[in-house]
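Here is one record:
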Amino acid sequence: MRELFLSGLIDDCIVRKDIFRVEESIAKFLSQGKKYDIFYLSDTFKKGVYKFSEVNYITYSSVTRRSTFFLRNSSSFEIKRNFSEVEERLETIKSFYKLDRGTIVNIEAVEILDLKEERIIFKNKQTLYVSKVKLKELESKWISIKNKKNIEF
């Protein structure tokens, strides 16, 4: 691994024993009760730290029993967590809105609510198809956040 790093084929790496120290320091930070603006996503073979603003939406699959975080860079990150657990941790964060049983949307990442095509278009042009009823629910929440800074025409 060291040879790959020194040769420039790998940009960065963490030794396995250091991952445990990183996890301990993150757990200590979270237990302090401070307000935070990042996710620490951890799965068996994959770990990542993302800002709230980098997440467009989160879905849950009852088939795979995994929650998937769809990111602004058009990638996704899966973790083996119940949707209720993810939802519970996001309750205090105002920019996330539970759209239905298996979808949470980051309202600040929404660019367009297309009522005709029944879809949400995010700032990175990612699309999520949703029913009109759910779009109307999201619209009221979205407008209340967006109108604080904008002029409506």
User: Anything to note?
Assistant: The beta strands are 38-42, 47-51, 55-61, 66-71, 76-79, 96-100, 103-106, 110-114, 119-122, 127-129. The CA atoms of residues 138 and 144 lie 10 Å apart.
